Amino acid sequence: MADTDQVVLVVEDEPDVAETYRLWLEERYTVIVAESGDEGLEMLEERVDVVLLDRMMPGLSGSEVLSEIRSQELDCRVAMVTAVEPDFDILEMGFDAYLSKPVKSQQLRSTVENLLERSEYDSLLQEYYSMVEKQATIEATKGTTELENSDEYHDLRERIAELRDELSETLGGIEDDEDFIATIRGLSDVE
After folding, report:
1. How many Cβ atoms from other residues are within 10 Å of residue 171's Cβ?
2. Which InterPro entries does the record associate with it (predicted)?
3. What digits encode the pLDDT tens for the residues 63-101?
4. What are residue 139's phi and psi, to 5 degrees?
5. pTM to 2 decimals?
């Protein structure tokens, strides 16, 4: 049984394959299974963190399910898990990971773990940018004395420092301010 509240939705039309993925993941995550694209969309809710999506299914294909997930702007990561050989058409698809079948248990577990870490990182990065933007705005409109006397401003600076530390740790312990800023800017340009 899962020891976290993280939810993985497996959308796979082959019951044996879906059951195998469930068995591999159920110890760490809550796993729900859909046997078709339509059923997958019905089961998709806010609480789903990662979707493992077969690309080729009868009815609604994995590509169509992925398009619907992205158009609804659902906050989940999607890994295409498929026997379809990747081609240039994947460049237009909005998945977060692409796994070619047959998939090994460790590969599947690692992919889910990486996608969950990336989600956490993205949230931290968004909050960090939001806080830095607030800091810049307030510093542009308030004088030094007013800033020094503001508890809210000190709290804001402390939160920015905490977020910076968390992001630095996630990025492998970058300590130097210039390296940190360059890395964050580089990541933002990629996304």
Report:
1. 14
2. Bact_response_regulator, CheY-like_superfamily, HalX_domain, Sig_transdc_resp-reg_receiver
3. 889 889 888 888 888 998 888 776 566 666 778 888 888
4. -70, -30
5. 0.66
